[in-house]
Amino acid sequence: MSWFKNRKLLIKLYQTLLNISLLLLSLILAYFLFRELYYIFNDILLENKNVHQIFGKVLIFFLYFGFISIIVQYFKENYHFPIRYLLYIGITATIRFIIVNNGESSHNFWLAIIILVLTISYIILPFGETKNG
């Protein structure tokens, strides 16, 4: 019986450490989010003519925003990351990568294949979920 009690205590300790770590990570990401927003406004006010540079900063801003929203969703979903949100972040991050990095067409082809696989996974995900309770 004491093994079971120690196990529950250890799980509770790890859950608390995870929650504290995610809260700290969200604060750090919020700092970087607002810093990126400052850089974007600074470029606009200084009339930076390099549109690709500004666009890259906007996409980075949305990456920070996406990671913060996934942490918020973790707490809303009773301490677990739904796989659909991770797939959504993967799809959007890959699309952003293609937009910002105008690489070789063969790299873009493979990234498009990755987007297709992630999208198919996102679509078929509800069919694999079990309806418990």
UniProtKB/TrEMBL annotation:
Stretches of the chain forming a coiled coil according to its record: none
Transmembrane segments: 12-34, 54-73, 85-103, 109-128
UniProt keyword annotations, A-Z: Cell membrane, Membrane, Transmembrane, Transmembrane helix
Protein's cellular compartments: Cell inner membrane
Predominant location: membrane
Family designation: Belongs to the PsiE family.
Identification of the protein by name: Protein PsiE
Organism: Gottfriedia luciferensis
